[in-house]
């Protein structure tokens, strides 16, 4: 094999130069790859355009279940989102003294099935038997979105 060193590069006189067709196919494949990865990123970013708002940020503790109302809204325009299905709803009481929340709730509480009231408002019967701070974790499937919307909000149970 005839090789000569030119500068820091090795030069091979038998190496074929890529054709214009080969280069255009490589460019097309790169463009398709960039487009597909961009679309995949948009599908995962879409759920971040929604948020849950607690309409009853403070509730009274009770031995019976207390109805808690939340609203799902589109962040861009603040409009309520209707037709979403709340899949996973969890309520846990967290100690206030901790600066960082542990991975699991200190004391899990019961949450009943969500009832849609209209205008993006959902009523959740929940167990607020003690005073303190609760974290409500919600997951909902919004029509037209690939990924579920997930959010965590804080609710306080107090007598005043």
Automatic annotation (TrEMBL):
Domain of life: Bacteria
The UniProt record lists the keyword Transmembrane: yes
Sequence intervals crossing the membrane: 23-46
Keywords of the record: Membrane, Transmembrane, Transmembrane helix
Region of interest called Disordered, as start-end residue ranges on this chain: 1-20
Name of the protein in its database record: YtkA-like domain-containing protein
Organism (species): Paeniroseomonas aquatica
